[in-house]
Amino acid sequence: MVGQSGADSTGSTMQVGTAVETVLVQDASGRAAGIPDLGSKVLVIFYTDPDVASLNEAFRDAVHAIRDPSKRGMGVVNMKDSWKPGWLIRRVVRRKQAKFQGTLILLDPDHALRDAWGLGDCDRRDVVIIIGRDRTVRYFQRERMTPEDIEVGLQLIRELLAPPVAV
Q1: Collapsing DSSP states into helix, strand and coil, what is residue 105?
Q2: Taking the C-alpha atoms of 57, 61, 63 and 67 in order, what is their torsion angle to the nearest 10 degrees?
Q3: What's the pTM value of the predicted model, to 2 decimals?
Q4: What is the greatest pairwise CA distance in the chain?
Q5: Do residues 140 and 16 touch, judged by C-beta distance below 8 A?
Q6: Which tens digits make up the pLDDT trace of 72-131?
Q7: Distance CA 79, CA 89 (A)
Q8: CATH class of 25-161
Q9: Are strands 25-26 and 32-33 parallel, antiparallel or unpaired?
Q10: For the chain, which residues make up each domain, given as ranges?
Q11: For residue 138, which of 164, 161, 107 has the smallest C-alpha distance?
């Protein structure tokens, strides 16, 4: 989890507590697309270099198992850092979306999201970002998640999805 100020050794300036804005990326057909439900649902975003797509698969599967209409999990493919050609990445994304109904995978062919949100160098990384309904980053992990990291992330999602307590 990252929360310090300033850029780290990868150039990341993303911090827990930072509010994020909508960024245009692409859908699997190459059309401009924003991040859906930003500001209305709890978002779990995997910003992934397809060369290491399974790095945080255990957390991805656990997030997928949480069935709550107030949560949206999605992938954003970091195409620019991959050696794989764009046409192949788009084809794989379209197949995954067809096979797993409701799966949303967007594409970032030119680092638009990485740069706008200050993610730093994302080559060979599977970055996990949890964003609250208030557009604030609540969790940011740039490395492979340990079992402890996975539990922290899942507990945070459960807390963010819990109904507000009346005072």
Answers
A1: strand
A2: 160
A3: 0.90
A4: 54
A5: yes
A6: 999 999 999 999 999 999 999 998 888 777 789 999 999 999 999 999 999 999 999 999
A7: 8
A8: alpha beta
A9: antiparallel
A10: 25-161
A11: 161
